[in-house]
Amino acid sequence: MTTHFTFHHALIKLNKMVLKMSAMAEDRVRKAATIIKTRDLELIQSLTNSDYEIDEMEMEVEEECLKILALHQPVASDLRFIIMVIKVNSEIERIADLAVNVAMRMQAILKSPHRVPTPYDYSGMAEKVITMLKMSIDAMTNRDVRLARQVFVLDDEVDAMRLDAYLKVKDMIRKYPEHPGQLINSYLIARHLERIGDRATNIAEEVIYLVEGEIVRCQ
């Protein structure tokens, strides 16, 4: 009885940890989207300085997973939950890293001595990526397979936006061949946003695995 009680509470603790980490990553992606709009140098600095927090939490979550596996040897749905957390933990940490990468690309653009017209409006793409991330986290929280599958549709839309950004940046490089660095950084913002969407999709796939036991790969 005591062992079962301890195991149950270990799973509750782990669930709270991964949800807290997810909320932190979502906050960082929202800040990255704000940086794209406002070009706020102070917010860029704040976001890059906080990168270590999720890195540390990722290690804590991983250690907790390994401890539960070693002490309780979970099976069936409990084992699937632990496996999901291990995979989602890595995805969340990478999402936070990508948010920082967006901030750093904006910083490089703002520090460039040469100003080139902005080739693409990333606000719509950023909002769609935030929606994907929120949906995947909500799906994980509520074990909602239907919501998880909706993320896949948005992923296709974000991929199309990334391609559109690529084509526009390519055209701008032809017009301004003397300043390729700034334009390449601009395209990389699209690439980082797309990768956040991909990671959100990966989380949605893990939710389906948790609930249905089915391995889904959309990419």
Automatic annotation (TrEMBL):
Keywords: Cytoplasm, Phosphate transport, Transport. SUPFAM superfamilies: PhoU-like. One of its GO terms (cellular component) is cytoplasm. Gene3D superfamilies: Phosphate transport system protein phou homolog 2, domain 2. Residues 19-105, 124-207 form the PhoU domain. InterPro entries: PhoU, PhoU-like_sf, PhoU_dom. Pfam families: PhoU. One of its GO terms (biological process) is negative regulation of phosphate metabolic process. It is found in: Cytoplasm. Homodimer. Belongs to the PhoU family. Plays a role in the regulation of phosphate uptake. This is Phosphate-specific transport system accessory protein PhoU.
